[in-house]
Amino acid sequence: MKIALTGNPNSGKTTLFNAITGKAEVAGNWPGVTVEKKEADLKKKYNPKGINVRVVDLPGTYSFSPYTGEEAITRDFILGEEPDVIINIVDGANVSRSLFFTTQLLELGIPIIIALNKSDILSKRGDVVDKNALSKALNCKVVATTATSEDGLINLISEAVKLGKEKKPQIAPDFAGKDSEDSDRARQRFVDGIVEKCQVKKRDSSKITFSDKVDRVVAHKWLGLPIFFAIMWAVFSFSIEGLGGYLSGYFNDVVFGEIVPSVANGFLEGMGVNPLLQALIVDGAIGGVGAVVGFLPLIMVLFFCLSLLEDCGYMARVAVVMDRFFKKIGLSGKSIIPMIVGSGCAIPGVMATRTIEDVNERRMTTILTPFVPCGAKLPIIALFAAVFFPEKNWVGPSMYVIAITMIVIGGLLLKKIFVWENTSQFIIELPEYKIPSLKYAFLQMIDKAKSFIYKATTIILVCNTLVWFAQAYSWTLSPVEDQSLSILASIGSVIAPILIPLGFVGWQLSAAALTGFIAKENVVATFAVILVATSEESLHLPGGALAQFFTPVTAFAYLVFNLFTPPCFAAIGAMNSEMGSKKWLFRGLAFQFGVGYILAMIVTQVGTLIAYKTPAVGFVPAIVIAVAMAIYITTVIRKAESERHKIGVEA
Amino acid sequence: MVLSKANIGQTFQVKSVEGKENVKKFLFTLGCFEGEEITLISILAGNYIVNIKDSRYALDENMAKAIVMEA
Q1: Model's pTM, two decimal places?
Q2: What is the CATH number of domain A2-200?
Q3: Beta-bridge partner residues of A479
Q4: CA distance A134 to chain B (A)
């Protein structure tokens, strides 16, 4: 049996889904959190008879005619896959809006049961909904629920399963003017009639509430932006430099730096394992993966904080605050949401661009979202900050400031380079604030920790083993004394010349950056593997083994390079499916690479001149490249301007 | 008069909604159409916070200009 969850955005579908399936899908208090369908089996608690029930969570929609991309997914699923039962979640906070979609669903013939959700908010407001009258008017069962506390869910599910077994087609209520040309208006009138009969409202919703008062501060014309920056700074510095950084430091230096390798070495020696195999396991697998897993606490703290932020309802307000600024670069406030989601992982971030209606705006946001450092880039930031800037705790969080700056500059450039008519309009629902659930944030944190460990022990482990092998052997498959004769060195050397204008000298640097495209954590793991073979010094300590490759200035540039060049392959895949065109994907990647490359070059060349009063390596080629880029960009902008002039569009 | 010219705290009846068809349709599903009530709650960072039915929405100025009110 297949049960589909449908309803308005932010009505609590995913919270209900998580409750009845035991999953930890991301829910949040803003419209448009879910942008794809999610499927899972019913949890045992809700399925005492153990029958086969699949639950499908669908993106929220206000009506059957989609406005944005994720709404279309819902319509296509219901029409295409015909679930056995539809649970229609009616938002208790706005019953009359929800029922418009409900009456459309009722006409499909699929059995429907209504979950009157957020019952707690209803009763807090003093509103009363007559469930029996509502049920009679709509010709279907109505169950009161509160998904956050799981109230009413057992009843809801058992009724839904019963409906699915009966297989009786749904009979839709009839109303005057249903088949007329103006049927939508007739539908609204019908809904208004039902609400008038079934709902007694104590509260005048047009009165100023506490939420409104909070909004007047956090979305204030002048205060809004500083408040947003302060909150994000607090989240990132708490994750990177605060609790997360502290715990990661302990993990890296003590647990994976001393305890695990010595235990493993002792154990393997005791077993009489071949020394070569021992080196592979301890230096390659444990060394590389350990260097990444050590950053687990940092990732956990970050996701915990982000979950709290997403759950309280602040995200929609950020969109309001940022709208004014994003309009200047051809985007709208909605574009900030993919970027904040992207600070956890770029893949859901890129997917969140679906909620943007305008196709050009969506493409721009898809190109710019990966600039925000994701959780996988965090280990690189933390490692470089600890080694090269131990006393400067602003370096880690400053990467986010650079990211925002690059999004603004990048947006302005894209707006100049590409020609399109900007007709974007901005509208977003502002849900009532709620106290974020610590339990939910904790579950999210555990879920993210699990997938981080899974990633580290699969893809990163495999990459590391290969990297270890490639740095220890030559193409003839014989072990090498000198690492520079290895397979890895020869691969790295092919790319290395491209990086010289950036001041990055050595095949090791290009090899590490290259492995980063598979997963960004690999950059750290690859350095760990390469250096453990050649250096006694610890990787994570200030002035450690990495210092042989970088000055603090070039280290900063290397960080910038890894952060702003294209993301990992998985995120590139997500970009591909959201762009819907290979041409745009290629443009996006070229743009990202260009930005990362030029920015790293500027940091190295300008920074070295200022800090050390002497030009860095590759100064002359860097100038040549800078001039060539400047000429290229001016020509492209000129061309775009003349095209704009021809078709009469303003930039 | 259009919404962008309204006073904060005032409740109006919508006379018509102008602009692109899909935006009009979207506002319609939210309950913003001819004859319905709409209240301007605040103006924040250039956006108009309104109450339609039981929910708050933020609209940008262009959208606020497209909503025409009764008198």
Answers
A1: 0.92
A2: 3.40.50.300
A3: A473
A4: 18
